[in-house]
Every structure is written in C-alpha cells, then in structure tokens.
Exonuclease domain-containing protein
Amino acid sequence: MSLVGPRVLAARLTFDVLLATLRTHWLPCTLFMIATCLIRSYRKRVGYQHKGRHFVSQTSPQHSSSFFGPFSALWSPISQVDISSPSEQVLLPRRTTKRNMRYQTSARQFKTKKQIVVTTETPYVIHKTTQPYDAFLVLDLEGTCELGTDFNYPNEIIEFPVRLLQWKDRADDGTASTLKAIDEFRTFVKPTWRPTLSQFCTQLTGITQDQVDSAPRFSEALVKLEAFLVKNGLIDVHTKKRLKRFCWCSDGPWDIRDFFVKQCFISQVEMPEWIRGDILDVRSVVQQWRHSQNGLSVQYPPYIATGIRTPLNISAQLNALDLPAFEGRQHSGIDDTRNIARIVTELARRGVRLMPNTTIYPGRRWRWMGKHGQILQDELP
C-alpha cells in the first residue's frame, strides 16, 4: 500500500473544492472567464494600435474608477493625468514594448530614449527645417478651353497671376518655417489663335471677352513679368539670369508643363531661362504629406522629395491641412494662386522641406503642332 504525500492530498482537495464551486456557481464562473478573455483581447488591441505610446486622458485622478479595486488596471490601459491648462504639454516616456526592448540592456538606455510630446492644442510640433530655396513663385494659369476637351487641346493663356513668397525667419544655416507674401503680379493675356472666348470658358474662369481684348499679347506679358522679377531682385536686369534660388509652384504640373509650353509654341517665343527647370507640384506634396502622417510621431515632419499626382483639388488640400475654406472664386487665376500660396505657407510651417518634384520639358510637342507655330486643324482632339 503506497502512502500519498501531503502535497498530493492538498492538490486533490483544492481540485474537489473548485469542481464543487463550478457545479454550484457555473454561470458566474463562465461570465468571469469570458470577461477576462475580452479584457485581455482589448488590451492587446490598444497596445497594437498605439504602438507602445502613452496617451493622456483629460480625466482627473479623483474621477478614476475605484469600484473594480485591484482589477481597475485591467479596465484602464490609458494612464490618467490631470491637465489644468489646455495649452499645457505633458512629456511621457515611450512605452516599453517587445519591439523597443530589443536592444535595451539597462535602465540607462531606456532613459535616453526619445520622448513624445502630447499636447491638447495641435498634433504637430512645429520646428524649422533646412530649406534650400530662397523664394517661391506661385502661379495658376488660366487658358482658353472648349467643352469636352482635355489637356491635349491647344489652350492659350488668358490670365497670368503670380504670388511671390519669401522666408521671414530664415537663419544663417538655412533653416526656416515662416513664409510671407512679398508681392503679387497679374495680367490678362490676349489670345491670337482663337481670340473669341467660348461661353464655357467664360463661365468657368469668370474672364470676359472685354478683359482679354484689351490685354497685352503673350510676348508683352512676359516682358511685364520679367520687370516684376527684376523689381524683386530675382533675376538680373540685363542677363535675365537668376540672382536668387527660387522655385515655381503650381497646383499640378499642367500650368507650366502644358499651358506655358503650348503658348510659347503658338506665340513663337523661346521659353525664358528663369522659368526653365523643375517645378514644385503642390498637389503631390500635400498628398504625400497625408500618406507620411500614418505611423509617424510628431517630432519627425515628412521629407518630400518626389511627387505622386492624385486627384486632390485646392479645396481638398486646404481641408487636409485644416485650413479655412477656399477664399474667392474657384478657377479664377488670381484666387487660385492666393489659395495655393496659403497651402505652401502651411506646408512650410509644418516642417515640410519644399523642393521641386516635377520635370518640365520645354521641347514637348503635341500632334497638332505644325511648323512655325502653325496649328494643324486635322490633328485637333
């Protein structure tokens, strides 16, 4: 006859007690097990979504739940901190997870980890970024158009607005974050191939026939624009070479890539050196900035180097940057230019490095282009 040890007897007694409890109170025990599984699943989901970061709840400590007692930690995965002032910033260390514990060997290394700034006013920490360009020329050209045509149509420029932006706080090391509107240029342009505007064009742009009839031709408008650039110290008065490093900006690539290149061919004017080169497609920058916000902390503003063209109009860009609604009339060249300038200014304020992202080819040709500015009617779209 074998003797049973006291540990085995204690284990059997504990098992019998648990079994009797389950038989008598099976419903509360089942609910408790289900609740425990749900809580564990919820905590894992919260930890995955926030990627190991601490977030701040505006609930004060005295309102924390005390009903659950020792189980309150299960129900409250978010730490509660009292924020008395809405503009107060709270510094919280990065939450220790398996991912960021990979290379931690001591508590000293954990203390040197970067901290996350949590603020109740804005989700972005604005700081200066190195900006390689001195000025930005924002433009939005308006051209002749017909109902049912696309960008392959031989559009002629009928409005040429430009808004000049320069840095207000640029340091010696090239860092800056605040752009300011310095000057503005605007002129209507008289078309020559089809001087009569279509009804669709007038309704779309708001430009009347009288405005273009009394306007200068494209070659004369370029002379006025050169005088504007000389006045602001951007190009040399004699050589027309650049004196400052400035970048042309537009909503999409169509203004310079299509409208300006077509107009130079129709007017038989060589594309000036001061507008050649790559441009900044603002629409692409805003779209890529939106994509870059997913998974990035507030200390690291996006670096924009290349563009991805997507259907995002000016109003949608303003909304994406939490700016006030479109000001003025849409498809008006001067109003579009001013709103695009607002977008560029906001991107700079958020720390985006503004650089060209679209290549322009002055020698681009369309099928309707003949010799010496002639437009082939049979090749029109």
Notes: The beta strands are 89-92, 116-119, 129-130, 135-139, 142-143, 157-167, 175-176, 179-188, 246-250, 280-281. The two ends are 105 Å apart (CA to CA). DSSP finds eleven helices and ten strands in the chain.
